[in-house]
Amino acid sequence: MASSPSTSPRPQHTPNTAFRALRGHLSPGEFAANVRRSAREIGEQVSCDARYIGRVESGEIRCPNYAYERVFLHMFPGTSLTDMGFAPRESVRGRAARARGAHAVEEAPRRSTARCADLTHGQLPLHTDHPDSPGLIAFPNCPEYDEESDVLRRAFMTGGSAALATASLGGAPHAWSADRPTCPAYAGDTEAGAVEEAVRHIRLLDDRHGGAGLYHRAAGPLRTAYELLDAGTRSQAVADRLHAGAGELALSVGWLAHDSGRYADARSHYAEALATARVAADPALEAHAFCNTAFLARDAGRPREAVRAAQAGQQAARGLGSPHLLSLLALREAGGWAGLGDTSGCRQALARAQRLFARGVRDDDPEWMSFFGEAELEGLEAQCWSALGVWDRAADHAQQAVRLQKPHFTRNRALFTAELAGDLAARGEVEEAAAAGARALEFLGPVQSTRISAMLQAAADRLRAFRAEPAVADFLSRQAAATA
User: Fold this and answer.
1) How far, in Å, CA of 255 to CA of 215, rounded?
2) What are the b/e assignments for 292-314, b being 16+ CB within 10 Å?
3) Is the distance from CB of 396 to CB of 379 less than 8 angstroms?
4) Is 14 strand, coil or helix?
5) 73 pLDDT exceeds 70?
6) What is the 8-class DSSP label of residue 338?
7) Taking a C-beta distance cutoff of 8 angstroms, is the pair 86, 64 a contact?
8) Please, are residues 418 and 456 in contact by the beta-carbon 8 Å criterion?
9) What is the DSSP string of 207-223?
10) Close Cβ partners of 52 (under 8 Å, ≥ 6 residues apart)
């Protein structure tokens, strides 16, 4: 049975017929797969699916964000965004658009996200009309946010049920509004889509900024997602989407807690996701939950639990057709063996991870694994050798991770650079370690991660005996100021 229709007005868009013509005879799903493959060809990673293609063709997305722009121009050389039916970027963003957005905030505060505090600097954001979707948040005093990052700051970060319900509608009015803060009688496609949208954008936020500044703002949408499950649905398809979306959102919020050093909270969220996976008989969600649980157990000093959870995740993932997922789970297992001091077990798991990774990407790879590339493979191996005290190998792999990491994964660039600083310090290369530590400190600000800060503290502790070296003294001074 179909879900109950919404009686509220929908935004009016002009269909993008030019882009629809580019799709040709392919289905939206097939075309989305082509977009993802083309992105990988140029080193981009986009979470394109049939729904995104539908939003473009309906005119809801008037101009793509910069990552999609690069992919589309690569797919259709010699064709401009205007040729593809998109509006000029300056017409949907920039100072004029932000002024319009700011005015809209004053006129309609209930429908805006203006009351959401800046996650990094504590300033009030402005409403903006970003090309990927209206109703976003701009951060005027941090240049990094002026382009791609502002597309990530979605209405769901306000933590309200209305914000989550409207996230996939670009801030449009909805039957579930600020005047009606309770759940609808039945959840439908719109609500399931809102949860899915929240999951995507919280991950992208974390890629750039880490979890410390985001965690407390994500709890509200998570509660709302589970309220939607309790509300019930009129179709099994929507129920399946809501279970998967709520479980993935629990994992995303759990990861923010994990990255913020809130291990007990993270453990609770991961357990919630695992229970949701079991109820819904969803092996993909179950594998993801075990993957995160293994990572948390390693960081929390429970290496044997990390091994068991990673092995359980591999069992759940065997039928999913994703060698890269199995590779990541093998790396989680290797981390557990390293924590136990079992060099043989660690080596075997690392070799298995490398073999599986070499099989390449597949269309069946989970969407949440967009971060998992060569840099992550190298970085996780570096952490294993570091745990075993094999500093030469640890530093070599950390250097590779830093070299290979894509620029838009700001958080991971900070993470691997901090890892390199610690490994070089342990290897006795103090000037090189101080230089790497100084580079990692430059990321702090846009990136807020308790884990990364702790890694830099450990590197500083190792270098303190060499404070007579000018480079070391400079790093120690800057590191102390950053943690003051």
Assistant:
1) 9
2) bbbbbbbbeebbebbbbbbbbbb
3) no
4) coil
5) yes
6) H
7) yes
8) yes
9) HHH-STTTHHHHHHHHH
10) 32, 61
CB-based burial label for 340 (10 Å; 0-12, 13-18, 19+): middle
Cβ-contact 61, 14 below 8 angstroms:
no
Residues 6+ apart with CB under 8 A from 412: 207, 371, 375, 376, 379, 405
Q: Give CA angle at 100 (97, 102), nearest 5°.
A: 110
The structure tokens listed for 208 are 């750039």
Residue 133: in which H helix or E strand, if any? strand 133-138
* CA neighbor of 217 nearest in space, from 90, 111, 100, 120: 120
Q: Which two tokens stand for residue 31?
A: 């075309």
Q: How far apart, in whole angstroms, are the C-alpha atoms of residue 152 and residue 166?
A: 15
Q: In the numeric block, which tokens belong to residue 135? A: 């109703």
Express as a percent the part of the chain with pLDDT over 90.
Answer: 41
Residue 228, SS3 per DSSP: helix
107: Cα separation from own chain's centroid: 32
DSSP 9: P
Instruction: Tokens for 464, please give them.
Output: 């303190």
Q: What are phi and psi of 4, to 5 degrees?
A: -65, 135
DSSP state of 326: H
pLDDT digits 0-9 by tens, 178-221: 333 455 556 677 777 777 777 776 776 655 555 455 666 666 77
Tokens of 290: 């075990």
**Residue 183 and residue 180: Cα distance in Å, rounded?**
8
HSE on the CB side for 330, CA within 13 Å? 21
Per residue, the 3-state secondary structure of 85-116, as one string, reads CCCCHHHHCCHHHHHHHHHHHHHCHHHCCCCC
In whole angstroms, give the CA distance from residue 121 to residue 215.
15
DSSP string spanning 45-71?
-----HHHHHHHHHTSSSS--HHHHHH
Sequence spans of domains, the chain? 17-88, 282-372, 392-484
**Picking from 123-137, 188-202, 456-470, which range would have the lowest pLDDT averaged per residue?**
123-137
Give the SS3 label for residue 15.
coil
pLDDT, one tens digit per residue, over 385-400 is 999 999 999 999 999 9
Q: Using CA atoms, how far apart are residues 249 and 273, in angstroms rounded to an integer? A: 8
Instruction: State the sign of the Cα–Cα–Cα–Cα dihedral 228, 232, 238, 240.
Output: positive
Q: What does R_g of the chain's alpha carbons equal in angstroms?
A: 23
Of all residues in the chain, what percent are helix, strand and coil, respectively (each to 5)? 65, 5, 30
